[in-house]
Amino acid sequence: MKDPGDYLAYIKALIVANPHVVRWKVIRDEAQGDMGVFRYRLNLKDNSLLEMFELFKVVRERIEVEKYSFHWQDAVGNLLKRWDNAAHHPEVVTNPHHIHDGAEENVQPHDLINAEDVLEIIALEVMA
């Protein structure tokens, strides 16, 4: 990616092309210099909701995600998964990267993840 605008366009194209996304809304979407940020809200065909947030920068035409949170919940608001890198779980071996799996208190190690990865994971789970 040459600049943050390219990455934002790429993520939007992934969302639009995803057959599991019924509706989506831009909450925030900005690119300045080598930095960018987005927050998108996606409604999926199984009636679940995915909130996507990334703060990123472009370094030598590669995307470096600095902060992220991908919150996925079912139709009635129960947490399915949330991947994030808030540094509030120092006990997790992959700190600050982790996942809340099925419940807020079920915190598990997880490697760095990005929007593209999350969309792929959710597509597989929605299809199951």
List how many beta strands DSSP finds.
Answer: 7
* General form: globular
Distance between the termini: 33 Å
Whole-number total of structural domains = 1
Mean pLDDT: 95
**N-to-C SSE series?**
HEEEEEEEH
Provide the spatial order of strands within the biggest beta sheet.
Answer: 1-2-3-4-5-6-7
| Low-confidence parts | none
Helix proportion range: 10-25%
Please describe the biggest sheet, giving its number of strands, its sense, and whether it closes into a barrel: 7 strands, antiparallel
Return Rg in Å: 15 Å
H/I helix tally: 2
Q: Which strand-content bin applies to the residues?
A: over 45%
Question: What does this 3D model show about the protein?
Answer:
With 128 residues, the protein is of the alpha+beta class. It has one domain (4-127). It is built from 2 helices and 7 strands. The chain has helices at residues 4-17, 115-127; strands at 21-32, 35-44, 49-59, 62-73, 79-84, 98-101, 107-109. The chain has a 7-stranded antiparallel sheet, covered by helices on one side. A hairpin with a 5-residue loop joins strand 4 (62-73) and strand 5. The longest helix is centred in the N-terminal third of the chain and has 14 residues, at 4-17. The protein is globular. The termini are far apart.
Quick tags:
128 residues, alpha+beta, seven-stranded antiparallel β-sheet
Summarize the SSE layout with pairings.
Blueprint: H1 4-17, E1 21-32, E2 35-44, E3 49-59, E4 62-73, E5 79-84, E6 98-101, E7 107-109, H2 115-127
Antiparallel strand pairs: 1-2, 2-3, 3-4, 4-5, 5-6, 6-7
